[in-house]
Amino acid sequence: MSIFVDHKALKHALKKLKDVLIVSPADAEVLTYEAVSALWKNKAPTLPTDPLTKLVDLHLGPIFVAFDVFFTTALYTDVIIGTGFITKALRLIRFMTGATSGNLTRNYHTDTHTTPYTRVRFGWSFYVNYLTAQDAYVALTPTTSELALGFIGIGFHINNGNLYAYNGNGVAYTQTFIKAVGSMELLQYEVKMCGTDSTPTSIEFYRIDVDSAQKVTRTLVATHTTNIPSMAAMRFAHQIKTNEAFSKYLYLNNNWIYWTRS
């Protein structure tokens, strides 16, 4: 569907407003209220100050400003313990452990995300195969070290084919069973911080479903109020480990951040 806008009529209507001042308008500018002058002025939109914005895939919509941080896989640091490997493409990272018990492959993002947190959703699209004797994480964490139960962060944990919502503060952790997953089953999930940036009070975990008409539905699958980490500088991190002499795989399709307007 297309909408016709009579720009001459719109310009005439705006001129009638005494508290609006538009000077040299440019594409993508928005009307912003300036308290000093008590006027609405055309200005470039103000985005959160964050190093991840250099990877921006910007969508200005009625609800959110979205950032797809997965386009530049070069900004991930890879760590391989054992004989595994990591392969990368524009929309896929594949982690393979190698067939020795204790092997693991992981990566973490070079950049970190700072506040705001309570107006932000963080998401992952991923899947695994060979579900026995495996341990995998997709997470947001300040650490660049190996991920294990109790690590500081939030995200999702797959252990022996079971998917859990996870958060930890470095001393203790909270984990809630979500479902048993199938081999190569696409999993799309998000986390949302609630409360204030300095003191989050809870974490909400959502399943993301997209229908044939591309309509997105978010279903709350868990809420955690204990062992919430201090939300300082966080980074995306992903890991899979094998606990038997058989190689395990983690496939990461995408991850994302978006700022809600409220």
Could you characterize what this model shows?
The chain is elongated. About 10% of the residues have low confidence. 3% of the residues lie in helices and 50% in strands. The protein has two domains: 46 residues, no CATH class; 200 residues, Sandwich (Jelly Rolls), CATH 2.60.120.200. It is mostly beta strands and 262 residues long.
The H-and-E topology, N to C, reads as: HEEEEEEEEEEEEEEEEEEE
Unreliably modeled segments? 47-71
> Biggest sheet: strands, sense, closure?
9 strands, antiparallel
Helix content: under 10%
Overall mean pLDDT: 81
Q: Quaternary arrangement of the chains shown?
A: single chain
Stated plainly, the CATH topology of the largest domain is called Jelly Rolls
What is the helix tally? 1
Which secondary structure elements does this structure contain, and how are they paired or packed?
Blueprint lengths: L6 H9 L4 E2 L8 E5 L4 E5 L15 E2 L3 E5 L7 E6 L3 E5 L2 E5 L7 E6 L10 E10 L4 E8 L11 E7 L2 E7 L4 E8 L6 E9 L4 E11 L5 E9 L10 E8 L6 E12 L2
Parallel strand pairs: 1-3
Antiparallel strand pairs: 2-3, 4-5, 5-19, 6-9, 7-8, 8-19, 9-18, 10-15, 10-19, 11-12, 11-18, 12-13, 13-14, 15-16, 16-17
Summarize the structure.
By secondary structure, this protein is mainly β. It has one helix and 19 strands. It folds into two domains: 1-46, no CATH class; 53-57 and 66-260, Jelly Rolls (Sandwich), CATH 2.60.120.
Q: Any descriptors?
A:
262 residues; mainly beta; Jelly Rolls; 2 domains; nine-stranded antiparallel sheet; 1 helix; 19 strands
